[in-house]
Amino acid sequence: MMHSAIFDTAAISGIRLQNRLIRSATHESMAESSGAPSAAHEKLYTDLARGGAGAVITGYAGVQQDGRTSYPGMLMMHDDALIPAYRQLTDTVHRYDTPIILQLAHCGRQTRSAITGMKTVAPSAMKDLIFNEERPLELGENAIETIISNFAAAAGRAVKAGFDGVQIHMAHGYLLAEFLSGYTNRRRDRWGGSTSNKFRIVSEIFRRIREEQGDFPVLAKINGFDHRRGGMRRDEAVRVAMLLEASGCSAIEVSSGTIEEGLSIMRGPRFPSEALLACHFRFRSIPEPLKKAVGPLLRAAMPSPKPYRNYNIETAKAIKEAVSIPVIAVGGIHTLEEISAALESGAADFVSMSRPFIIERDIVRKMREGRQTASRCIMCNYCAIMVEGGPLRCWHGKLPRKRAEAAVQQ
């Protein structure tokens, strides 16, 4: 495939994209306290649209209060009162002929009751090594039904707000990924055990959205694998993808890993210990002299798995061979050659990126115009850590003391 094919128009379930490069959902820590999008969101998404992104997938938006992230500034879509603010956002982005898709999520056990004000919940009462200060509640039948209803209601609000589609977040160890993984789902009822049972909550969400919103595009982001004992593996991810297609899914984005695994989701050659010690709630209060000793221990305890690039391609290809709906590959795909290879090899129909869009919101335009063939991202992953203290930005591997302190105080 010639590079030019990357920049041909394409479609996902009726959504017209200017090219095959998508901004993958990335938490921005920019929302208002109500969960409404802010002026910073509007600038970010319009910059991405002007910069040539084929489509923009928002940072995750919570469907209910106990599903909020522990990071600040999470988008929410749990209340009809939020619709006007989102309508203003979508109207603005659409001026640039760019579709915008709202990612919907529940964080499950990967949050903190100190932040949400509510007990954390999960398919099974297993503590998360990173987030939980207490054991989460195992969800009962009524609570599961409420979550299904709230995902469907949030999708309905997205329709009213003018979004081109929604993406259901089923990856990275959040609630729906917890149901799908045998590591976090130890249930013996109709919500656990077999793949179809573990998938039941997802199938019910899709059924409700399809009943209420017809053919409105509903995408999914899934884990192709993780590194947890008894967790998601490629063969089961393929079965999940087939169940998604049968449920009316419009496209599948293939990612991997959980936050509990450290640098599994966003990989890189150097552990971001400086950012973690400056910003993470478990480490930022450690006295400075001790931080110098803790840093090397963190690097030894949480190595980034290899490869650092193109690490979801083979799983995406296995999924694409099993389904007829579009497949989107994400994960360390940062150059024109890598993008072309992903598309030409048949591994994916689209490529999505996160970090390259953080450092350069106009990277697609630069690539299309021949001014650049690779992202300037050095994969330091400070961006992923520092959102705990303030708005998303690129730090490029440098954390000046005053800026780090300012970020944490925000």
Q: Can you characterise this structure?
A:
The chain is α/β, with parallel strands linked by helices. It folds into 2 domains: 3-262 and 307-377, Aldolase class I (TIM Barrel), CATH 3.20.20.70; 270-303 and 380-410, no CATH class. It is built from 17 helices and 14 strands. It has an 8-stranded parallel beta barrel with strand order 3-4-7-10-11-12-13-14, surrounded by 6 helices. Strands 1-2 form a two-stranded antiparallel ribbon. A two-stranded parallel ribbon has the order 8-9. Helix 9 links the parallel strand 11 (218-223) and strand 12 (252-255). Helix 2 runs parallel beside helix 3.
Derived from helix and strand composition plus strand pairing, the structural class reads alpha/beta
Summarize the amount of helix as a percent range. 25-40%
CATH superfamily of the largest domain: Aldolase class I
Total of helices: 17
Uncertain spans: 406-410
- Report how far apart the termini are: 46 Å
Main sheet record? 8 strands, parallel, barrel
Radius of gyration over C-alpha positions, nearest whole angstrom: 20 Å
